[in-house]
Structure to design on (274 residues):
């Protein structure tokens, strides 16, 4: 055996990968197969004087490590899909209507201080609600023990939105940003985004690694979108994350619910009853 070679434990590699990399680095086809079988968990890997992998070794390892990571991601994704499906089946089978997904766009009442802002105020487009009215909407009575909340909030109303989330029984986790194609009003800045807060309770599974959406989403402009109406891309994202969980949209705007959704709100003609 060449003195420069030494056994280097690499238990993260399977037998075929270990032997392939060892031969690539050293060209040691003279190692007989019996020795290979006995040392399948070990591979010759070149190191420098400091004991670190050489660039040649790192290059040889790269495709193997990439393949192992992809395999792990796929296994995690499959495990998460099974968990989500099992939870969905369990919630659908419950005698009372419980939803694993709550999607809400409350009619926030925001006090404005100028006539120009008043013209674009939500109160000129639909009835708004006080903070206490939103907190008393009854979401806590329809949300399943294990559930996730997607709650729309504007930047000035962020503290109130977090208060609503807590009142409904959810713990804040993260948020998405809707980047709009036009600017709105504001005092400290001209708002060009809205926030979609994410909160959970119980054992709801988060998305598997590699399947997450980016935190900032910029949908295609839609000139027909009504005041404060949210892009369909966000509902699609929620459906991708939780395809089997029963879903409820609060404060829904429209007469007919989206396929696979239960809805409530003034326009839907249905309210959540505590």
């Amino acid at each position: 055996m060449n003195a420069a070679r030494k056994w280097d434990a690499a238990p993260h590699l399977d037998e075929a990968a270990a032997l392939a990399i060892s031969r690539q680095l050293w060209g040691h086809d003279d190692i007989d197969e019996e020795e290979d079988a006995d040392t399948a968990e070990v591979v010759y890997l070149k190191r420098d004087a400091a004991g670190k992998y050489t660039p040649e070794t790192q290059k040889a390892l790269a495709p193997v490590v990439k393949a192992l990571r992809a395999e792990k991601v796929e296994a995690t994704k499959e495990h998460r899909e099974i968990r989500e499906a099992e939870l969905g089946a369990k919630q659908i089978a419950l005698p009372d209507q419980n939803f694993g997904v709550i999607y809400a766009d409350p009619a926030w009442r925001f006090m404005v201080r100028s006539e120009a802002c008043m013209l674009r105020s939500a109160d000129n487009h639909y009835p708004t609600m006080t903070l206490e009215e939103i907190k008393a909407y009854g979401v806590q009575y329809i949300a399943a023990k294990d559930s996730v909340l997607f709650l729309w909030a504007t930047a000035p109303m962020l503290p109130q939105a977090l208060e609503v989330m807590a009142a409904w029984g959810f713990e804040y986790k993260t948020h998405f940003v809707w980047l709009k194609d036009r600017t709105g009003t504001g005092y400290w800045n001209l708002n060009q985004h809205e926030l979609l807060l994410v909160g959970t309770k119980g054992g709801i599974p988060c998305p598997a690694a590699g399947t997450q959406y980016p935190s900032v989403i910029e949908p295609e402009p839609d000139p027909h979108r009504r005041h404060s109406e949210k892009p369909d891309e966000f509902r699609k994202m929620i459906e991708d994350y939780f395809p089997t969980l029963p879903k409820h949209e609060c404060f829904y705007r429209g007469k007919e619910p989206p396929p696979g959704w239960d809805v409530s709100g003034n326009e839907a003609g249905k309210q959540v009853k505590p």
